[in-house]
Amino acid sequence: LLLWWLTVAAFDNAPWPHYAVNLGLHWINALLLHAVLRRRVGSWWAVAGALAFACSPVAAGTVAWLSDRFDLLATAGVLWMILVIDGARDRAWVATRLALAAGVAAFSKETAIAGVAWAIVAIPALSDLSRHRRVGLFTAAVAPFAAMLLVRQMVLTSTNSAGLFADPIAT
User: Fold this and answer.
1) Could you say which of 32, 86, 95, 147 is the most buried, measured as most Cβ atoms within 10 Å of its Cβ?
2) What DSSP string runs through 122-151?
3) Cα separations (Å) of 35 from 24, 49, 90?
4) What is the pLDDT of residues 82-136, one digit of tens each?
């Protein structure tokens, strides 16, 4: 939502900048996917996979639906999380970058919880890292999602101006 507000503030409600932002996010996702695949399957397969993702007609709906930016951001956050965890052995500020990636994912859409599932599987496999560092990485991956769930709970259970609960289950 913040990115939507920033786009409106910069370009008003003209549709073309919103389409450009969505298309840019989609291409960023394709580049992130390329980086993730390059670590796993090599350069040529990574290029093929990223191009297939970028040109897929399935993705056209997400890019064309202006208010569906949250899916693009959640995808970017999860792919960034995977990339950061994969490079945890040879990079500085890994926990900070992982927390930022998880924050982008978590506060974009709840389905990005898949990034936590990846962290649960991938971080213990980094056996050459110290236990302290692995716990730090796990905390960096999980904390933004815990914060998102806490904020979500607070918003859904707070009363509005009419004195009604916003949570339909609680009423």
Assistant:
1) 32
2) HTTT-TTS-HHHHHHHHHHHHHHHHHHHHH
3) 17, 10, 15
4) 999 998 887 789 999 999 999 999 999 989 999 999 999 999 999 999 999 999 9
Q: At a CB cut-off of 8 Å and minimum separation 6, what does 33 contact?
A: 49, 50, 53, 79
Distance (Å, rounded) from C-alpha 164 to C-alpha 3? 30
The model's pTM? 0.85
Report the alpha-carbon distance of residue 60 to residue 86 in Å, rounded: 29
- Closest-CA residue to 104 (of 25, 5, 21): 25
pLDDT grade, residue 168 (50/70/90)?
A: low
Structure letter (DSSP) for residue 68: G
